[in-house]
Amino acid sequence: MLYPITPVPKPRQTQADKWRQRPSVMRYREFADRCRLLGVTIREGGDRITFLTPMPRSWSKKAREQMRGKPHQQRPDVDNLAKALLDAVFPEDCRVWDSRMTKIWADEGGIRIEPIPHP
User: Fold this and answer.
1) pLDDT tens digits for 32-87?
2) Backbone φ/ψ region at 25: left (φ over 0), alpha (ψ -120 to 50), beta
């Protein structure tokens, strides 16, 4: 299943973030609300999650063609993207015991979730 949501990392939050509206926290809250609105679901037994990171508009057409589908090896880290997604979907994400996460370059941001076959 492909969800048209641009992934964002989970920010470090403080108690002041309850009333202060830092941009990183507001981006995460909008992301979490959108995940819930679109009904993003992840199985506790695990899914393969691919974060599709949009390529910068400043890149040339040639650079975009070369990087499309290639590994995204810069910030944000895949573990921060995963934490944001799992915290948005689950009230207690400790129940997830298997998942595989990757992040790749894409034309548009998105999150692809596919089941992992278990023996």
Assistant:
1) 999 999 999 888 877 899 999 999 999 999 999 999 999 999 998 998 999 899 88
2) alpha
Q: Could you tell me the strand order of the sheet in which 47-54 lies?
A: 2-3, 110-115, 47-54, 100-106
Single pTM value for the model: 0.85
Q: Identify whether the C-beta of residue 93 lies closer than 8 Å to the C-beta of residue 46.
A: no
Return d(Cα 25, Cα 17) in angstroms, integer.
7
In order of their start, the domains of the chain are 2-115 (3.30.1330)
User: How many other C-beta atoms lie within 10 A of the C-beta of residue 5?
Assistant: 21
Asked if residues 66 and 16 have their Cβ atoms less than 8 Å apart, the reply is no
